[in-house]
Amino acid sequence: MASKGIRDRVAVIGMGCTTFGEHWDRSTDDLLVDAAGDAIASAGVALEDVDAYWLGTMASGLSGLTLSRPLKLDYRPVSRMENMCATGSEAFRNACYAVASGAFDIVMAIGVEKLKDSGFSGLAIPSPPNDGTGGMGEITAPAMFSLLAPAYAKKYGVSDEALKEVMTRIAWKNHSNGARNPRAQFRKEVPKETIQNAPLIAGQLGIFDCSGVSDGAAAAILVRAEDAHRYTEHPMYVKGLSFVAGPGAGLLDPAYDYTTFPEVVAAARDAYAQAGVRDPRSELAMAEVHDCFTPTELVLMEDLGFSERGAGWEDVLSGTFDLGGELPVNPDGGLKAFGHPIGASGLRMLFECWLQLRGEAPPERTIASVASGRRLALTHNLGGGPGECVSFVSVVGSEPTA
Amino acid sequence: MGGLIAYGAYIPYHRLQRSRIAAVLGSGGGPGSRAVASYDEDTTSMGAEAARAALRMLEGAGATPRQLYFATAAPAYLDKTNAAAIHAALRLPESALAVDMAGAVRSGVGALLAAADARVPTLAVLSDVRTGLPGGGDEREGGDAAAALVFGGDGDGAPVIAEILAHHSTTGEFLDRWRLPGDPASRVWEERFGEHVYGPLAAGAYRAALAGAGITAAEIDHLAVTGVHGRATRAMAKAAGVRREALAPDLAAAIGNTGTAAAGIALCDLLDRAEPGQTLALVVLADGATVLLLRTTAALAAHRAPVPVSAQIAAGNDGLAYASYLTWRELLVREPPRRPDPEAPAAPPSHRGEEWKYGFVASRCEACGARHLPPARVCVACHAVDRMRAEPLADVPATIATFTVDRLAHTPSPPLVAAVIDFDGGGRFRCQLTDVAPEEVAIGGRVEMTFRRMVTAGGIHNYFWKARPLRQAEVPAGTAATAANGARGA
Question: For a tag site, which of A138, A183, B186, B277 has the least CB within 10 Å?
């Protein structure tokens, strides 16, 4: 890929994140007002100091008015972004580029989703008028992602029982992390037996293998890196940003074997090149990845280069990605326990990087890797499913590169 | 001289054992089973399947039907021509006429006669889903099926396998069986009255047809009698004066009385069992009587339906629960899943994509050979633009690459089984599996495509294709049939 990157040219100076969950008493407007308020307070700026806005929401409102109306913005540019489950990250990415271009001094990236007003427990995404031949309308998201599990097991000779243990371990880890996060949708540890014996939803996926459907919002305030220290002693620098949309080859080509997301591999390669990361497993302090379903997180460990091909499942079982492991993955509980309000999730991931890299995470979930000198964190989103998806990878860091 | 050039039957996979009715309702039931259209089938989709089977016999013969008559007593749509969807599924030329003969059971034999008398190659498709109120005789004795028969002349490219010797019909106006539009069940008069009226109508038609053909009853090698009146059909069979061994076995015990389709199914079965040079008689009793006499030709020996009626009967699965049957026929209203209602297909995209949606025509890149399902303009492999040609895949088998059981998806028959299938000769598609239990699905399993009604939403039937297990033995690789398939696919 030919992206040049904007390493160390943009920095985050403040962030806000609402609690995620079933917010029966809070509207989309409420969530936006709260997240935006927290972010500007965190940055120590006023709303009128913010020059432009990027709002990510998949389906909770159309146009920039979704943000400008509740915030009563005085005639500012608001771009409304959508890129499926990577929507929040997409708002952040475009906001970064606007700052890097010099067009604006201070901008806000904000994401929101209000899923629990639909009355349905899963995702309900309306399609444009169509000929009724698409599989997406009838096959649910857990079913699409469940295709990864048997394919992975078969390719690497992992028994169904061992794979179920791996999936259970991922859900268990993310629930234990979420139990240490007051903003998470699910704040209780869940015994492995409960996870393993839960009713099946699709394929080998039980109810605990699926992420939480929730409401929430998160926001970031961005400035040029050279201005960052005017606002905070500990800004978070943008090291790499990559976004790819795939050709959907996996749905057409029998060579695709459902054990990888080529889109993620491409996005990671690009982001690492921009950020100068050579060995993510030893260089990253933590990663927030798109654990929409437990087999997704397993495959991502390999696609993001944290594990060798075919070795991800053993690394999961040995605790490599636990809160106290070599490379903590989803220390905030991930989509699994923190919840997944689509448009907010990408910014929620950055919020955890913001807390951890600055040493502001609660002690009970503070990762050791930062204290031991690691300064980089990764966030990853994907939207779509195996065979056909969009993917986002960012690398952020607490220090400018020397 | 003209005659029958191809035939095909479609008996759905599911059977309801009649004893299961009594097990639930405490009465009714009886021995044997009835054929049941699956939750994703209707008279149109079954008709398309039967017609596909028939047209497979004409492959390479250049005898494309130029007319399609579709008969059913249970049309999926009123006002709109159901035969048009079958026409599209078969990829018949735009210039081919497609019309419905819908409403009465007699439409079946009517379509058959109209096709037999036509001056151009004509396809008659007879299809029915027989319903009645729970516990009633129609529920117990009915059956769902479709049959397709193609008539043409030797000059049309395909050999005649059965010549028409004669046919004769009689008509009577009397109340024996009837249904008001929209009613869930038919009504019948006292059975003995119908028997009294049908007797002379049948005898008259039979006499006249034999006279027209210049033969005697003793010369008939195979006789089948179907109709809407059980006692009258049995009486007619007894009175026909044919040799005992000429009487066709009663299919109703295994699949039920398939109503509009019954005449076609019976004729297909006669052809399956007949030898060249034999005389066949088909008698149909419905608001009168029709007698059709045919003589099979030497060509029959080499031109038979690949999957006989008896094999389809034997391949049925009689594990269907009575509650599922009631649910599928909307006689038992069940709690829907807590998911958004399915979306209806929109008219313009359905029309633009007619070849794909109805005909399962994919595309193949002329630059690099990659197949695309659905058809695309830009090649995923070599990125060539607008170098595609149409690639019909409805008759190409495929192998399951991976699959999943979706317990959350909206389907009238949970759980939904979805599979990624790879077609012989290339190309991949993700679709639903049907006529399958989750536990019998395996990676590597062989499947074939089948035309189905995916869902009905917003008053619109969404027809498209699913895959089903390939249960009939495959022709071994290297034979003429597979070579022909390969050549078509290349």
Answer: B277
